[in-house]
Task: inverse folding
């Protein structure tokens, strides 16, 4: 059933008004419906025809335009069709021109904004003959719907929290329904926005998980709804997003869609601006690990290559590892590049790279940095050469950087890094190479760790030190690791490994067989207690390849062999212990892929170098760190656990976690030698969460427990329900409980929690009662974290945690059962509301008249929550509704009417229409005449006309007839949803 709400006036109409103020033209829903030829059409045909003729005047005619409309309205109703419609919008799809006997690409959208038309409409109803959906607001460019907005009320009724997660959760449910029920419409639509004024979020269509919905932000830090709407729907910006910032990629042979985030779009614009700069030819982009750096590089390269300003340029994508080169290659193929052409443009050898540069190759070139070794000076002196350098903090140091810049002296160099400039590097190295044109910070664009966490791009990280008896000797760690000048600012894991090879005492300590056994015991117990119950996976990072093998041997004694796997690089002289892990590329790919899946093994990956950069596994939650690391290498490694993840139940990964067996985080200032502002919030001691949990419990006792203290059970529930009738107070409590339960999920089953368990259980009961009372119909189990759900299902000191708000079957004994109970009137109100809601949702398909009854109960609930009706009045009216349901069921049985006819009768009867039974019976023949009216737009129109005719025959005034017809049709159609 459709909920009552206040979304239209405050959100929807305001959005339309702001859009019109910046040049969009509003079309009324009925006019838009006419232009697209009814609710089965998508293209506004007259506008589309006019614009195609204007933009393609050299060759197109009306017959060809009609063919185009048929083609795009019949694209495959899945993501592949969505990609094809996007290719049409970009002007990449051809049509055959008979007069020229050849195909020509059709321009659908002109980057010259004044040549396009921009329309906006609302209440956009689309039906495919089986299902019908209504889109709140739709944006249309040149007659093609490209964007829709899902508006939400500022304050949701029935206590829906107005926080970001609640808005996303509800909006996603509807957006998923649009994709499943009317995929034909979603095939054309490229983007969506979700807004309730407080939040302004956007996403690409065909991306229906919460991590694909992003906060919209502007460079000027706009905050108001007006600024955000006008900034996002700026005509030039929206065209730019559609044409330039959407990517279709393939991952594991599955087509996926990506729209860039605000920080990525901002960086691309800055990069193209720097590329065109007359005097500045260096730049450094710091976008923290996990924020989509690779896609930013790819799109920036595309923008430079396709811009005529750069006069057929060369763009070199430069990486420093085989696996990163492969990753870049695969990302480019996934983004639509031709594989054969890419192979020709990927430098296979130093000689091949030399040929590409000497032959003045234009377009894209991919290479690894080491292939520039001994490259001749001035091999290419053109100015329109642009080198985009991945992992710039380590790629261009020393001789390799000199060879690169000597070979391409006039090129522009754009460095990308996932880690900030370390303190040692200020004024040297990366700063001098890339940041010198952007002093004092050295960044052309920056997306910090704290920004990333705030946007939900990455999650927070927490750490804990292992017990002292498992840590290596502190003096040895200081001497052979922290005090080494050669390790300050270390940015390459291979350089780190070379230092560790010389740290004989430290390595021997870490690989001591007795210690490895003890660490393994600890890891297994920790994983089983803390990580596995959350549904996540782990890395065990060992000091070297031999240690990886030794840990695997010990893990297999305690866990099934399939639970863990080793991923290391092979070496020619490996002994038998290491040779067993010489996997083929295909086998390693299988392991990596399986690890990312929640229902597949392995659960623990044992690594030392591989997978510590470039490996993206959102399900990875815990890193058992048994390898000394610092600075860039440490930041890159721990960032493996910072990816957001959401399971099929809607539960989200609360954070990432690092368990330190070395003692690195005991010396955090030495381990991460960066400016404090750059790494603010990167990783926090788990003890911080314990202090916060204790603080929250104290707040609960002071603010919330007093509501029910010293009250009998019935009075306690009454007090709770009455206190939280105010939505803002309730929302604050829900947010409060969310924070408490998230920390509990991370900490449990830590012994620290024992003194607080009774209080946490009490909070959980309060939350459960309120959710069940004020948000009927939700699946309450999904509201809990995994460990809390387990707690709820078990037994506690105070008894089994269960719903205190009983659901009664609606029948002749309902009121008597309620009155015989010892419940308070407030509790009885919510018992009845839940019981009515349950009856309506379980029976409305068989008894459609229940829908109108349910809507009245919902309205009554709202008035009660807003204190517009008192307790006694509300209770009596709810009793009346129960009696009405019983009376309706009795009448339906006595009159023996078909369900739809009885529903019409019941609506007319309750609206005090004379002769309701006669009128309803007259409709019987009409329903028999149009049995498919609910799924056919044409038949629905005829059904409505017959309804009006009967109303006219019975002398019902037109002012009453129209809303009556709308109400009847809406209720009857609800049964099809």
Result:
């Amino acid at each position: 059933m459709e909920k009552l709400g206040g979304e239209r006036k405050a959100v929807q109409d305001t959005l339309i008004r702001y859009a019109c103020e910046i040049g969009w033209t509003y079309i009324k829903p009925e006019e838009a419906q006419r232009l697209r030829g009814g609710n089965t059409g998508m293209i506004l045909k007259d506008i589309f025809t006019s614009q195609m003729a204007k933009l393609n005047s050299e060759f197109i005619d009306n017959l060809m335009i009609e063919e185009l409309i048929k083609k795009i309205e019949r694209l495959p109703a899945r993501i592949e069709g969505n990609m094809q419609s996007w290719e049409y919008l970009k002007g990449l799809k051809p049509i055959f021109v008979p007069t020229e006997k050849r195909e020509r690409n059709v321009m659908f959208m002109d980057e010259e904004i004044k040549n396009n038309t921009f329309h906006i409409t609302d209440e956009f109803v689309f039906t495919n003959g089986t299902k019908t959906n209504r889109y709140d607001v739709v944006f249309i460019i040149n007659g093609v719907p490209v964007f829709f907005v899902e508006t939400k009320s500022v304050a949701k009724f029935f206590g829906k929290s107005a926080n970001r997660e609640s808005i996303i959760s509800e909006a996603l449910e509807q957006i998923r329904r649009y994709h499943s029920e009317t995929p034909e419409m979603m095939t054309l639509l490229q983007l969506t926005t979700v807004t309730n004024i407080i939040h302004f979020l956007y996403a690409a269509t065909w991306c229906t998980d919460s991590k694909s919905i992003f906060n919209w932000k502007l460079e000027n830090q706009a905050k108001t709804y007006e600024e955000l709407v006008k900034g996002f729907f700026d005509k030039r910006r929206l065209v730019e997003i559609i044409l330039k910032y959407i990517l279709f990629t393939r991952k594991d042979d599955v087509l996926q869609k990506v729209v860039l985030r605000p920080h990525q779009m901002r960086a691309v614009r800055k990069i193209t601006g720097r590329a065109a700069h007359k005097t500045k030819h260096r730049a450094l982009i710091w976008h923290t690990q996990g924020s989509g750096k690779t896609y930013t590089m790819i799109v920036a390269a595309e923008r430079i290559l396709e811009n005529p300003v750069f006069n057929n340029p060369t763009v070199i994508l430069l990486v420093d590892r085989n696996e990163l080169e492969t990753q870049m290659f695969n990302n480019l193929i996934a983004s639509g590049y031709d594989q054969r052409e890419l192979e020709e443009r990927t430098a296979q050898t130093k000689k091949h790279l030399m040929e590409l540069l000497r032959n003045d190759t234009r377009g894209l070139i991919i290479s690894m940095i080491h292939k520039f070794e001994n490259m001749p000076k001035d091999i290419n002196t053109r100015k329109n050469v642009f080198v985009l350098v991945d992992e710039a903090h380590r790629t261009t140091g020393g001789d390799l950087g000199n060879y690169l810049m000597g070979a391409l002296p006039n090129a522009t160099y754009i460095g990308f890094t996932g880690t900030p400039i370390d303190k040692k590097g200020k004024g040297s190295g990366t700063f001098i190479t890339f940041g010198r044109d952007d002093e004092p910070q050295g960044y052309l664009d920056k997306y910090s760790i704290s920004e990333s966490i705030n946007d939900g791009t990455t999650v927070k990280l927490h750490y804990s030190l292992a017990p002292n008896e498992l840590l290596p000797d502190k003096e040895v760690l200081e001497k052979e690791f922290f005090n080494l000048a050669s390790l300050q600012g270390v940015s390459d894991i291979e350089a780190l490994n070379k230092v560790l090879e010389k740290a004989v005492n430290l390595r021997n300590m870490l690989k001591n067989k007795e210690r490895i056994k003890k660490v393994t015991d600890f890891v297994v117990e920790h994983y089983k207690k803390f990580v596995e119950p959350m549904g996540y996976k782990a890395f065990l990072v060992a000091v070297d390849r031999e240690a990886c093998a030794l840990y695997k041997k010990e893990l297999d004694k305690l866990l099934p062999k399939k639970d863990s796997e080793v991923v290391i690089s092979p070496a020619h002289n490996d002994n038998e212990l290491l040779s067993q892990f010489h996997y083929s590329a295909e086998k390693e790919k299988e392991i990596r892929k399986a690890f990312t899946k929640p229902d597949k093994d392995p659960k623990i990956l044992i690594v030392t170098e591989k997978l510590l950069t470039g490996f993206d596994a959102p399900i990875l939650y815990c890193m058992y760190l048994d390898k000394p690391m610092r600075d860039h290498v440490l930041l890159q490694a721990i960032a493996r656990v910072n990816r957001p993840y959401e399971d099929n139940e809607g539960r989200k990964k609360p954070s990432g976690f690092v368990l330190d067996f070395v003692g690195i985080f005991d010396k955090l200032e030495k381990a991460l030698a960066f400016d404090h502002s750059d790494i603010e919030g990167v990783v926090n001691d788990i003890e911080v969460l314990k202090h916060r949990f204790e603080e929250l419990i104290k707040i609960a006792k002071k603010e919330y427990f007093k509501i029910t203290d010293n009250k009998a059970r019935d009075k306690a529930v009454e007090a709770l329900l009455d206190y939280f009738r105010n939505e803002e107070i309730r929302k604050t409590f829900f947010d409060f409980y969310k924070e408490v339960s998230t920390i509990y999920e991370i900490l449990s089953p830590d012994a620290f929690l024992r003194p607080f368990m009774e209080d946490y259980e009490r909070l959980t009961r309060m939350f459960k009662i309120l959710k069940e009372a004020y948000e009927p119909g939700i699946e309450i189990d999904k509201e809990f974290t995994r460990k809390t759900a387990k707690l709820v299902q078990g037994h506690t000191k105070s008894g089994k945690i269960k719903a205190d708000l009983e659901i009664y079957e609606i029948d002749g004994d309902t009121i008597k059962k309620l009155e015989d109970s010892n419940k308070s009137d407030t509790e009885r109100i919510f018992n009845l509301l839940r019981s009515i809601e349950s009856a309506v949702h379980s029976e409305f398909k068989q008894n459609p008249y229940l829908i109108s009854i349910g809507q009245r109960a919902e309205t009554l609930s709202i008035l009660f929550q807003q204190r517009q009706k008192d307790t006694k009045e509300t209770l009596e009216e709810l009793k009346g509704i129960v009696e009405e349901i019983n009376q309706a069921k009795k009448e339906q049985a006595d009159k023996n009417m078909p369900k739809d006819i009885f529903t019409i009768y019941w609506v007319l009867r309750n609206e005090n229409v004379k002769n309701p039974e006669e009128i309803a019976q007259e409709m019987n023949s009409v329903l028999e005449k149009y049995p498919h009216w609910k799924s056919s737009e044409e038949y629905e129109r005829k059904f409505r006309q017959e309804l009006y005719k009967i109303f006219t025959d019975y002398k019902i005034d037109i002012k009453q007839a129209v809303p009556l017809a709308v109400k009847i049709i809406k209720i009857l159609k609800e049964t099809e949803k």
About this structure: The two ends are 9 Å apart (CA to CA).
